[in-house]
Amino acid sequence: MTQKHTAPDGLVIVDKPSGFTSHDVVAKMRGIARTRRVGHAGTLDPMATGVLVLGVERATKLLGHLALTEKEYVGTVRLGQNTLTDDAEGEITSSTDASRVTREAIDAGVAELTGDIMQVPSRVSAIKINGVRSYKRAREGEEFDIPARAVTVSSFSVYDVREAVADDGTAVLDLVVSVVCSSGTYIRALARDLGAGLGVGGHLTALRRTRVGPYKLEAARTLDQLQQELTVMPIAEAAAAAFPRWDIDARRARLLTNGVRLEMPDEYAGSGPVAVFGPQGRFLALAEQQKGKAKSLAVFG
């Protein structure tokens, strides 16, 4: 009698390779974990590498509730060239000698793009304009405007400025940068806007995401490593890391899992989803406080 394969429940923190879409990584993980129930929390551009959070089996129910609101990146911005896509994947649309741009001007430009700012996403982003993806409209040669939206850039630092010569002979500057920002911030739009502010154009040539919410690059595994050994953060551990924790006794655990709305302490008011644990650290549910009662968002126990 053959044993039925059971995929583990939990989060998988992937170190995404360059050239893969987030959907490609999900498809690959379905093969590795041998289950169709795989989803991702937040996308990462094909050119970019680094932290991509996947959910396997029941952990897919966690993904929509994860507050992955802050992200951290390291990357390289090239000053002196604009591209169609605001990154190295698009064709160059203009070149300008950037050799006279000073470090003081760069720092002033970076300061302008730090804090709460209004940002126009890249034209080849996945933003929907009247129900159609922006990149689809751009590909079809449409002329259209993307409204600016509020984002937060908590930190934007330049670690190194390197002089270089582009393939077309233009003197360019390559900036090694790190950015901590809110979800929905486009790093390639920061590169574009920094270059525009300095009058020489700019685009992103490399990007690596080092953190998403509480999940860091140190915990991430490459697809090859995961093929060798599937490393899954158990669902209870993932929930405890991502949400406030509420421990309840066996009697209340039974009531909760039977659909009874329990009285919930005031300390959880307004805190969003809370991970509810029963005896022996058993993860039971995600719930939020509504008028003093626990409203279940997803039940696991």
UniProtKB/TrEMBL annotation:
Gene3D superfamilies: Pseudouridine synthase, PUA domain. Residues 188-230 form the tRNA pseudouridylate synthase B C-terminal domain. The keyword Electron transport does not apply. Keywords: Isomerase, tRNA processing. The active site is at D45. The keyword Ribonucleoprotein does not apply. It catalyses: uridine(55) in tRNA = pseudouridine(55) in tRNA. SUPFAM superfamilies: Pseudouridine synthase (SSF55120), PUA domain-like (SSF88697). It is an enzyme of class 5 (isomerase). Its EC number is 5.4.99.25. Residues 243-300 form the tRNA pseudouridine synthase II TruB subfamily 2 C-terminal domain. Residues 31-187 form the Pseudouridine synthase II N-terminal domain. InterPro entries: PsdUridine_synth_cat_dom_sf, PsdUridine_synth_N, PUA-like_sf, PUA_sf, tRNA_psdUridine_synth_fam2_C, tRNA_psdUridine_synth_TruB, TruB_C. Pfam families: TruB_C, TruB_C_2, TruB_N. Belongs to the pseudouridine synthase TruB family. Type 1 subfamily. Responsible for synthesis of pseudouridine from uracil-55 in the psi GC loop of transfer RNAs. This is tRNA pseudouridine synthase B. It comes from Streptomyces viridosporus T7A.
